[in-house]
Specification:
This is SPW_0924 family protein. It comes from Streptomyces broussonetiae. The chain is mainly α and 44 residues long. 52% of the residues lie in helices and 0% in strands. It contains 1 helix and no strands. It has one helix at residues 2-24.
Length: 44
Amino acid sequence: MRALIAAAAGLLLAFAVVLALTALGTPTGETSPKPLLTTVPAHP
C-alpha cells in the first residue's frame, strides 16, 4: 500500500513540475547566427 501511495505522490509531483514549467513559458533567447559545423575537417 505504501508503494501505491509513493507512486501516486511521485506522479502528482511530476505533474506539478510540468505545470510549473508550462506556466513559466518559453525563455526569451536567440539562436546563434553562425551555422553549426556538420562535417569533420580534413586531417593533414
